[in-house]
Amino acid sequence: MPEASADTVALDTKMTSRDVKVHYGDKLALKGVDLEFRTNEVTALIGPSGCGKSTFLRCLNRMNDTIGIARVSGQVTLDNDHIYGPNGIDPVLLRMRVGMVFQKPNPFPKSLYDNVAFGPRIHGLYRDKDHLDEIVTKALEKAGLWHEVKDRLYEKGTGISGGQQQRLCIARAIAVSPEVILMDEPCSALDPIATAKVEELIDELRENFTIVIVTHSMQQAARVSQRTAFFHLGEVIEVGDTEQIFTAPTQQLTQGYITGRFG
Ligand SMILES: Nc1ncnc2c1ncn2[C@@H]1O[C@H](COP(=O)(O)OP(=O)(O)OP(=O)(O)O)[C@@H](O)[C@H]1O
Question: H/E/C letters for each residue in the chain?
Fold first, then answer.
């Protein structure tokens, strides 16, 4: 079920995709996805394994460019600017504006401070050491990690717990002031307490960012998102307000998935 056409895009729309298809070699993995992502909203992408959620997420910041056999067609916009094509936003700048948090926490083998300072350093986003300190502190505060790590900023980022590592990765993503944060199953490697902290954080981050999250957990989608898109075999079957999708889906396939009949 496609979203509104390009000429009816709402004012608070941050990103859109139109007829986005992805081939891996000869295999068509995404069959033409139309979606919109609104400012200050969390959109959850749900659906059975292999339906194309991660493939689609990677289209939103051109991460599929790093996969040799992947071919993307269609249009994706960020603030109405195209991200693909000859006049597309520069991919390095795009990935700064559209950050990503992965399934498995992947801190660099550097200090906590250097992990968070990494993006601001490579993009030259700070004036002097005091300014960089401020950026690092604020990012760690926003990621809800500051109080836990403020006395060990120069210890290795890999030496903290898995849940803390994931919040460190979120701090690293936030440090370059992105507008959109993509999260690919960010809690799948975390225990329930760490998961609850990250979910709480996602809700707080919504105030400042547009968030798109892939999740296998329908409870998580229901808890953290305002909009949900249900994918099946490379297509979006249904998209709508999260409450509607989970309480009154219009499509039988959606109903079957959320009631656990398949997936
Ligand atoms: N790098 C790749 N090379 C070839 N095929 C791929 C690649 N990545 C994904 N695919 C295929 O594309 C389809 C969609 O995969 P994708 O990982 O996007 O699905 P998903 O919904 O995110 O799955 P999961 O929930 O299991 O992570 C699958 O058939 C998968 O095998």
Answer: CCCCCHHHCCCCEEEEEEEEEEEECCEEEEEEEEEEEECCCEEEEECCCCCCHHHHHHHCCCHHHHCCCEEEEEEEEECCEECCCCCCCCHHHHHHHEEEECCCCCCCCCEHHHHHHHHHHHCCCCCCHHHHHHHHHHHHHHCCCHHHHCCCCCCEHHHCCHHHHHHHHHHHHHCCCCCEEEEECCCCCCCHHHHHHHHHHHHHHCCCCEEEEECCCHHHHHHHCCEEEEEECCEEEEEEEHHHHHHCCCCHHHHHHHCCCCC
